[in-house]
Write a structure and sequence with these properties.
Elements lengths: L3 H27 L3 H30 L7 H32 L1
Helix pairs in contact: 1-2, 1-3, 2-3
Length: about 100
């Protein structure tokens, strides 16, 4: 099993990748590439699942009585993940609006 720091960095990296894909989706909308934007949003969601899975493993370990001491690094990871989720959900909801505007 990965150590705690590795899992925390996995959350940060996956969330960062998901945010990047989400912003790439917006860039594609700006270029009129709506289908590509939908594909990027889907990729971002899959990438966020990796962050969520790492987080779930840490939570399960704590529930089983193992001390999880991530400190500020874990808070930072949670911040990245929640921001990525919020931004992705916002853009995902906006894509149909953009699609209508592009027609």
């Amino acid at each position: 099993m990965m150590n705690i720091e590795q899992m925390i960095f996995e959350i940060i990296a996956s969330a960062g990748d998901a945010r990047d894909l989400t912003y790439q989706a917006l860039d594609n909308v700006n270029e009129g590439k709506i289908e590509e934007a939908y594909e990027l949003i889907e990729q971002a969601e899959k990438t966020m699942n990796a962050a969520h899975n790492a987080q779930t493993k840490l939570i399960q370990s704590e529930v089983q009585g193992k001390k999880i001491d991530g400190g500020l690094l874990m808070i930072h990871a949670q911040d990245h993940m929640m921001t990525a989720i919020a931004e992705n959900q916002m853009v995902k909801r906006m894509l149909p609006i953009f699609e209508k505007l592009l027609k």
